[in-house]
Design brief:
single chain, alpha/beta
Length: about 190
């Protein structure tokens, strides 16, 4: 299914090193005719990193949208009852967000958006970016792989030499994964080499 005309939630969490690549993918999503709603985690809203200032990144992502950014749990909650999104992409999804999602914790705008969206039986897509994906977070990856309406952008070990537990999704697989998820399919293979 083509994403043109779809309302796509873009939920951004704090894996700052991936922001520039994610931003390019979100640009491509809008170029394909989708409308986006940006949702920012608390970390994205407050932490400046060596990869840029939080305000600059939020302004960049927000400039791609005609919709105001969602910055609070209170503002994220209506996404469910109002059934506003066709699909929600958490990109990047940190290990912290992944663990909370797997355990039903909703203490950030991103997690509240995910909870509300899933209650509508619509697809949630996860772009994994975590240094402990093959460590303590591996059980959470497994739990989420068995969850209804949850799909992963294919991922692989981004640096097995110095970070053997780290896994990051492939940016070039974001749009194919969104389109497949809208049809109820998981892109395969889920694990792809870098």
């Amino acid at each position: 299914m083509n994403i043109a005309g779809c309302n796509v939630g873009i939920a951004v969490t704090g894996s700052f090193c991936t922001f520039s690549k994610i931003y390019q993918a979100v640009q491509e999503i809008t170029e394909k005719g989708a409308s986006i709603t940006p949702i920012f985690s608390n970390s994205v809203q407050t932490i400046d990193s060596r990869f840029g200032k939080s305000k600059d990144w939020m302004d960049s992502f927000s400039s791609l949208s005609k919709n105001p950014p969602i910055l609070t749990i209170h503002d994220a909650e209506p996404l469910g009852p109002k059934n506003q999104l066709d699909i929600l992409l958490i990109a990047p999804c940190t290990g912290n967000t992944l663990a909370k999602l797997a355990n039903g914790i909703t203490d950030t705008p991103v997690l509240m958006a995910a909870k509300g969206h899933l209650r509508n039986n619509k697809p949630l897509v996860v772009f994994l970016s975590s240094n402990d994906s093959l460590g303590i977070n591996l059980k959470n990856v497994g739990l989420l792989m068995n969850m209804k309406n949850l799909y992963f952008v294919p991922f692989g070990q981004d640096n097995f030499t110095t970070k053997p537990n780290s896994m990051v999704s492939h940016v070039d697989q974001i749009i194919p994964t969104l389109e497949a998820a809208l049809e109820g399919r998981q892109v395969q293979p889920i694990i792809q080499s870098y």
